[in-house]
Design a protein that fits this description.
Layout lengths: L1 H12 L8 H10 L38 E3 L7 E11 L5 H11 L3 E9 L4 E10 L4 H10 L3 E7 L8 H14 L3 H10 L3 E5 L7 H8 L5 E3 L2 E5 L5 E5 L7 H17 L7 E5 L5 E7 L4 H10 L2 H8 L6 H8 L5 E7 L5 E10 L2 E8 L8 H15 L4 E6 L4 H8 L5 E6 L2 E7 L2 H6 L6 E5 L1
Antiparallel strand pairs: 1-2, 2-4, 2-5, 3-4, 6-9, 7-8, 8-9, 10-11, 10-18, 11-12, 12-13, 13-14, 15-17, 16-17
Helix pairs in contact: 1-5, 2-5, 2-8, 5-6, 5-8, 6-8, 9-11
Length: 447
């Protein structure tokens, strides 16, 4: 239970930043655990019209269902075994679960954990199993079906699934409490492979307002789709076509969103003070929508060429871009500011389905001082920490600064031309992640 202790300590350490009323949401979240932005490359930098919340795969579980390795110590050939996650619906009758467990035991399948999700009729039982290595998914499903299970779903698991549900949920709650940008990531880890969309609340007659009105305050569960009122307005929609949501999962997700809503806007308060090669001091910190006025002022100081390199077209509606880019719902933003507090650089890490985009903007007078490389290295480190497999940057071949910054990462790169723009993709496999360079500027202190 050391993970639980650490999570609690992190919340306690923040004292007044975590109000007492949060305890109700946190308690509800733990109790239920008893058991992107799709940023289309074909639409430039404009906020997407509908799909705005899908997150990349995490290290919690690979996106594919068959990539997990075998576990030693089982009863298969050579002593190998494999971990499986399985769900099946069992009749709500005495002895039904016992028959299923006996059938699993007969095939030398160990039950490592079991969670029950009561339904109006029947019960969804969720298992973590260790099975002989030679047992296939089809054979496992046949065993369960013969023993009375229905609507059975299986997926290969890994060692991360051995963490018990209360510990995992408490850890997700702690991460969400410390950083608003963690909410879509936490929902993805809580619910597994799913697509998260966020429909903001625009003008009163807009689609977001209509969507909000269609979702009751307590949210709505519709088989493979759950919808919740977003803390900042609008709606968060979570879709999992391959596996219906249960009422227990809906309650967990709702408690997590309620926790986020009660805490309000927040980002980690850490600031790194760095010395650039020519001797100037800058500060790198996380940013959010509260920094929109300062970011807009930076835009107004940038030349048309610099803005054109960044946005690949007209930027007359920068306010609209910035509210989206700086929102923690769609990614993470780093800001570079001078000793006077003026923002002179922005770096964005944007969720794009199963991929992740990085984007940079540095004010003209501060270019070619290593700021872009510093921001990019930090963004890539964040992507690796989130379990992303790659990051890509959309730029122009004439943007030598961005191309050089990508090359400076020391990672394998792929180049392709799409609709007249250059897309540079860096692969973040484990070996490549280890090769990624640390931020280049000399760190002289941490505030």
């Amino acid at each position: 239970m050391s993970d639980v202790t650490d999570a609690v300590a992190r919340l306690v350490d923040h004292g007044p930043t975590v109000p007492a009323l949060v305890l109700a949401s946190l308690a509800a979240l733990i109790a239920t655990a008893g058991f992107h932005t799709r940023w289309s490359r074909r639409h430039g930098q404009a906020p997407p019209a509908d799909d705005t919340g899908a997150r990349p795969p995490t290290a919690e579980r690979p996106a594919g269902s068959g990539s997990a390795g075998s576990e030693p110590g089982g009863s298969g050939p050579g002593g190998e075994s494999a971990l499986w996650r399985m769900r099946t619906t069992v009749r709500d009758a005495p002895g039904s679960l016992a028959v299923l467990c006996a059938a699993l035991a007969d095939r030398r399948i160990d039950i490592l954990s079991l969670q029950t999700h009561p339904l109006t009729e029947g019960t969804v039982d969720e298992f973590l199993l260790r099975a002989p290595g030679e047992l296939s998914a089809a054979e496992l499903a046949e065993v369960v079906t013969t023993a009375g299970g229905a609507r059975t779903w299986t997926e290969r698991a890994d060692a991360h699934d051995l963490v018990d549900a209360p510990t995992r949920v408490l850890g997700l709650a702690a991460r969400t409490a410390l950083d608003a940008a963690e909410l879509p990531l936490a929902l993805r880890q809580l619910l597994g492979r799913c697509t998260i969309r966020s429909l903001p609340a625009p003008a009163d007659d807009g689609a977001g307002a209509r969507a909000s009105a269609a979702v009751p305050p307590e949210g709505a569960l519709e088989d493979t789709v759950l919808r919740l009122r977003a803390p900042e307005g609008g709606v968060i929609s979570v879709e999992r076509p391959h596996l219906p949501f249960t009422p227990a999962e809906f309650a967990r997700a709702r408690a997590l969103v309620e926790l986020d809503a009660r805490l309000g806007p927040r980002v980690p308060r850490g600031r790194d003070v760095l010395t650039l090669p020519e001797g100037s001091d800058i500060t790198v910190r996380r940013a959010d929508t509260r920094d929109v006025p300062a970011a807009k002022a930076m835009h107004e100081r940038c030349s048309a060429r610099t803005l054109g390199m960044r946005y690949h077209g007209p930027v007359g509606d920068a306010d609209r871009y910035l509210n989206h880019l700086l929102s923690p719902r769609f990614g993470r933003t780093l800001a570079v500011q001078t000793a006077s507090g003026r923002i002179v650089g922005l770096g964005h890490l944007l969720w794009d389905g199963d991929e992740t985009e990085v984007a940079l903007l540095v004010e003209d007078g501060w270019q070619r001082r290593g700021i872009g490389g510093e921001l990019l290295a930090r963004l890539v480190a964040m992507a690796a920490d989130a379990g992303c497999e790659s990051v890509y940057a959309i730029t122009q071949a004439s943007n030598t600064g961005m191309v050089a910054a990508m090359r400076g990462l020391g990672l394998p790169l792929d180049y392709q031309i799409e609709e007249g723009t250059l897309v540079v993709t860096a692969r973040l496999d484990p070996a490549a992640q280890a090769a990624a360079r640390l931020p280049q500027a000399e760190r002289i202190g941490r505030e």
